[in-house]
Amino acid sequence: MAKQQFKAESKRLLELMINSIYSQREVFLRELISNASDAMDKMYYRSLTDENLTFNQEDYYIKLIPNKEDRTLQVIDTGIGMTKDELETNLGTIAKSGSFAFKNDTELKDGRDIIGQFGVGFYAAFMVADKVTVITKSVDSDQAYQWESTGTDGYTITPADKESVGTEIIVKMKENEEEDSFDTFLDEHQLQQIIKKYSDFIRYPIKMDVTKSKPKEEESEEYVDYVEEETINSMIPIWKKNKSELTEDDYTNFYQEKRYGFDKPLKSMHINVDGTVRYNAILFIPENAPFDYYSPEFEKGLELYSNGVLIMDKCADLLPDYFSFVKGMVDSEDLSLNISREMLQHDRQLKVIAKNMTKKIKTQLQHLLRDDREKYETFYQAFGRQLKFGVYNDFGANKETLQDLLMFYSSKEKKLVTLDEYVQRMPEDQSYIYYAAGESIDRIEKLPQTEMVADKGYEILYFTEEVDEFAIKMMREYKEKEFKSVSSGDLGLEDDTKDEADEEIQEENKALFTAMKEHLGDKVKDVRASKRLKSHPVCLTAEGEISLEMEKVINAMPN
Ligand code: ADP
Ligand code: MG
């Protein structure tokens, strides 16, 4: 049979992925195992609606068979299998994830977790394989098929013999090279470790024949080897485990396995609450903002489980908007499986959980700020804007949570500082928190308006994001110190108040000012003498509440 070519974009993507997405080769096994687990979940779903199918838990398992002579690793599952068409679409085009399509047209109201979402996992096998063979029989087909590929040059699909429904993947390991040994993935002991590391909480048993030894006879000193099938994974989900048993790596693996992001988590939180509402949660603050984070396409939400069973993919009610960057999952025994239908009834429980988690996220961020400034700044670069939106949208309700998490660039420190730090070091005679808004730090530094305030030795916060000024307008004050723009008409400085001398200068130059005003017309409201200037001949100031920068933003808004 002629070789089918991978679609062109697939080919490029495949090369890209093999070399970049996965930093460690061993994750190929995690991907194959999660696909097997997904395939068995699909059988479970099917059994819910198909009277001819019954789902006996013990019929569902994954089996690994390493073979050193053939250099092959077999990954066998008893899942739903694939038809010829499905082989074509699911394994012929990368990023055309069958799991994703399945997810869209099956209501996840009573079911299990489907891990796959991105449609690239399977190809991870080519990081270690010369050749991958998939022999599969779908629950919907009497004929089994074989898919085979040696990598980027395409694949073949041919009829095959297979009795039972399910899938068998044969990974033919690459030959060892000078620096790289692929033998690891054929070694019983190493395989066990990889499974423990990445796939321990898979809910189906992952079985393997393990070589053991025992005394030849009772009391004998002589030992003999024997082989026994063992279940390698503990099948306990990570969130039900004890925190003390887990390492940072376990959380990172979970984050990546769950595809919360392709980055690493900046911070992970494991929450076990056993109060009026009981829940376990694993939450993450990602290292980077997702590419669509600040766009309307971004959907916030956490996975919601009811006693280990996934009931909602993205439960938005669990997170306030200003913490929408948090990823992760929540499992509660107190939620009904039918939450989507009976949402109202359980709303209260969910609200308690959400409120409780919000508090914990805040505390974690405060600790991060206190204990690991650098990390906090990384976080703030990625998500600070969202916190400021939170202030702007509903400061009344969010004040206590958010005001101490904000940071702005400081004229004095030349780095991000908190409002508390600013207020702490304010000289006694300073009554306001001064800020200057502009496009960039560079530009703000050149603003004539900053000179006078800076000359007094006062610190100025630089606002370079549009939301900054809007946010602090909502706050009005921090620790009883009002915010003041350096370009406002009244700076609240002693020597900036009008006196008689001012009037004199104003009078003396009246003709000049009138001429200037006439020339500028509607562009300015008034031309006046100012004591605010040092090295600059002229500056613009704003009357009233709205600063020049805000005016720009408001004018640019669509009506
Ligand atoms: P994802 O799991 O993110 O969807 P993968 O590249 O891992 O992407 O897998 C692509 C698709 O191939 C899956 O969505 C699934 O439809 C199909 N598939 C892969 N492995 C199996 C398997 N063992 N049994 C049944 N279908 C599978
Ligand atoms: Mg997958």
TrEMBL record:
Residues 1-341 are annotated as: A. InterPro entries: HATPase_C_sf (IPR036890), Heat_shock_protein_90_CS (IPR019805), HSP90_C (IPR037196), Hsp90_fam (IPR001404), Hsp90_N (IPR020575), Ribosomal_Su5_D2-typ_SF (IPR020568). Keywords: ATP-binding, Chaperone, Cytoplasm, Nucleotide-binding, Stress response. It comes from the Bacteria. Signal peptide: none annotated. GO terms for molecular function: ATP binding; ATP hydrolysis activity; ATP-dependent protein folding chaperone; unfolded protein binding. ATP binds at residues 31, 35, 77, 82, 90, 96-98, 117-122, 167, 341. GO terms for cellular component: cytoplasm. It is found in: Cytoplasm. Molecular chaperone. Has ATPase activity. Belongs to the heat shock protein 90 family. HAMAP family: HSP90. Homodimer. PANTHER family: HEAT SHOCK PROTEIN 90 FAMILY MEMBER. This is Chaperone protein HtpG. It comes from Virgibacillus dokdonensis. The lineage of its organism: Bacteria, Bacillati, Bacillota, Bacilli, Bacillales.
